[in-house]
Write a structure and sequence with these properties.
Two copies of one chain form a homodimer. By secondary structure, the first copy, chain A, is of the alpha/beta class. The first copy, chain A, has two domains: 71 residues, Winged helix-like DNA-binding domain superfamily/Winged helix DNA-binding domain (Arc Repressor Mutant, subunit A); 114 residues, Rossmann fold (3-Layer(aba) Sandwich), CATH 3.40.50. Chain A contains nine helices and nine strands. The structure holds a DNA duplex. Chains A, B: Belongs to the transcriptional regulatory Rex family.
DNA sequence: TAGATTGTTAATCGATTAACAATC
DNA sequence: TAGATTGTTAATCGATTAACAATC
């Protein structure tokens, strides 16, 4: 295992979930072996890139043959830590929080929605997708009780920092931030920002000048 | 203007919306002038990076002074094509489509939700956020009528390609794809993939090995 | 064995960082 | 003027692509 010796690029890590999801599809199609060539064709990624990405974690393929789908799937799942069965919480039951609470792909990847938080008294106590909505003030207690590691911020911008602070105090380790604002947290907390207006804005950029980039992501 | 002579990196373009949103915040705070130093501090981006990004589109700053917030805001808005008042459509009234239809930031950036599409007869004719839900079969007509340029795919994976095909035929120019599947479209159509499970999976990767990357995005 | 395909090293390409002259 | 800060060029760093030896 090279994970600890060599620094893996962020770009590589972001491609792993794509490989994973495609391999799952292949498994469902009863494909047992796949070459980097064919996997690349499916994803719009060069075979060299795929081999390089995978090789940075170990030797998962068989020369002259390809990759065993089932085996590679297990390996990538392990690399991504999907076996950890992370518990996560959603903060904010607006339209976006509601949608995320009902998003099926998370649980199929092994993530478990353990709690939802809001401040609106009419929402506290509700069950969304079978998960209870708690008051923000009870976060510390619930996070401990339910062993929650990841917090998803889906509150209005104005409250994002306040919620982030609460999450940190409660002992969360990772934050997925949908609020379009930079949040400040200690260095030990990992944050991923997901500002949805970035996607639409960059689309606008390309459409406005009629120059589609050569390669999609 | 250098836009046409020099190829701007995708990384730069993805940062423009971040600059834009921060400048808007500054304007609301009545800040008139900002230095790359201070803007960088707010965003967690180096000042050199910001100056480089902006300089690739023109000379927007004043040496020894900084950038005029109002002026820079207008310039970045123009670069991003936000003045084009793009009409967009959402396809799929599931939880995600519903949330996107109600997302306020799009309209505040000048994007106009002009139509929603689904196939469920109980949803056709409904108005969400004041916008009518049409049947998928009427797409070509409605897209033409309402001059829609952008389609947001929020349907289950299994139907993503079929919807993409319909969008292309209808004359759409850009697609924002939330379905976790690669869609195939002609080269002239610009596609942005937004697979929400990538965010959670990469969080999982870092949490599983306790090595937060030095820099957040 | 011959053909295929990986894993790895080297070459290229692109993006970020550093340095500094220009100038407000 | 002196101090500050941009815009730009050069240096560094990192990621992708190409090439090919290893080997199934």
């Amino acid at each position: 295992m090279k994970e600890d010796s060599i620094i893996i690029s962020k770009a590589t890590i972001d491609r792993l979930p794509l490989y994973f999801r495609t391999l799952r599809l292949l498994q469902r199609e009863d494909v047992e072996i796949i070459s980097s060539e064919e996997l690349g064709r499916r994803l719009g990624i060069t075979p060299e890139q795929i081999r390089k990405d995978l090789a940075s974690f170990g030797q998962f393929g068989k020369k002259g043959v390809g990759y065993y789908v089932k085996e590679l799937l297990r390996n990538i799942g392990d690399i991504l830590g999907l076996h950890c069965n992370w518990n996560f919480a959603i903060i904010g039951v607006g339209h976006l929080g509601w949608a995320l609470a009902n998003y099926r792909h998370f649980s199929s990847l092994g993530f478990n929605l353990a709690a939802i938080f809001d401040v609106d008294p009419t929402k506290i106590g509700l069950h969304i997708n079978g998960v209870q909505v708690f008051h923000l003030d009870d976060m510390e207690k619930i996070v401990q009780e339910k062993n929650i590691h990841i917090g998803i911020i889906a509150v209005p911008e104005a409250h994002a920092q306040e919620v982030a602070d609460k999450l940190v105090v409660s002992g969360i380790r990772g934050i997925w931030n949908f609020a379009p604002r930079k949040i400040r947290v200690p260095g030990s907390i990992y944050v991923i920002d997901e500002d949805l207006s970035v996607g639409l804005s960059s689309l606008s950029y390309y459409l406005a000048r009629k120059t589609p980039p050569k390669q999609q992501i």
